[in-house]
Amino acid sequence: MRGLAEFIMRGRWQALAVAVLGAGSLLFGWLSAAAVALVTLRKGVTDGSWLVLWALLPALLAGWISGDIGSIILLLGTYLLAVVLRVTVSLALAMLASVAVAVIGGSALMLISGEFLEQLVTIFSDVIGNIETNLASNGELITLDRPTASQVAGILAAGNAVTAVLSLLLARYWQALLYNPGGFRAEFHGLRLPVPATLVLGGVAVVFWLQAPGISGWAMVWAVPLMFAGFALLHAWAAARQRGNGTLTVCYAMWVFFDPMKGLLMGLVMADALLDFRRRWSAGSTEE
């Protein structure tokens, strides 16, 4: 990864090559977005805007062919997050900006890619129908809810926001690796959202989740900053308690496979906003 970061920063045309080659790809769109973010963070908003405009060309072509504008949303969303981080030098504010990226991206999907969303709804409905048929053959008569276009748009919007944040974090890691070794670890471990924003995001996410299916899909949009703040808290705890990568791996596996872990982590983030666990851990380490 260091070699790729050095190649991107070697010059404008090297950065352009990486950004353009990955922009129209579902597999490497995140890499293109990370390259745009790295240039924006290091060289400024103007250089980043020049790069993202060129990278949008293959993304626009891919969107026109497939009807999926996800690559466009990812590029613009990551660039926006990089601009926020560059201007404010606040990772917390960049995380909060991911909500705007998700809301705008999801709205654009519903306005521009309606046919694509309906295709996804049909695919998901067919899969659910097959599951119901298999259950019926085993004597279980269960009717499962079908997703709506709005619900799918919300899920895709949250997914794009998560990918944009990951691309931003990768760019920030590259920047620290090249110019400020160790800086990314300290910055990420210290990530803590403002108290009002944390409480509002948590409350809105719960309210959306309890609503009708067409709205509940948007709950994840509001939970994206809380999720990354939770991961940062988890890493800070592991560092303070001198836990190895094995502990973090187990925690991430539990988060992926057990839904209660997601709620627990979000609750811990909200509690941390009020109690500042890191300060307590630091004080405990000092006393030892």
Can you walk me through this structure?
The protein is mainly alpha-helical and 288 residues long. The protein has two domains: 1-189; 193-288, no CATH class. It is 84% helix and 0% strand. The chain has helices spanning 2-9, 12-23, 29-43, 45-66, 70-88, 91-112, 114-137, 149-179, 183-189, 195-209, 213-216, 219-240, 245-257, 259-275, 277-287. Helix 3 packs antiparallel against helix 4, helix 12 (219-240) packs across helix 14 and helix 13 packs across helix 14 (259-275). The longest helix is centred in the middle third of the chain and has 31 residues, at 149-179. The radius of gyration is 20 Å and the shape is globular. The model has no long low-confidence stretch (mean pLDDT 88).
Topology:
Layout: H1 2-9, H2 12-23, H3 29-43, H4 45-66, H5 70-88, H6 91-112, H7 114-137, H8 149-179, H9 183-189, H10 195-209, H11 213-216, H12 219-240, H13 245-257, H14 259-275, H15 277-287
Helix pairs in contact: 2-3, 2-4, 3-4, 3-5, 3-8, 4-5, 5-6, 5-8, 6-8, 6-12, 7-8, 8-12, 10-12, 10-14, 12-14, 12-15, 13-14
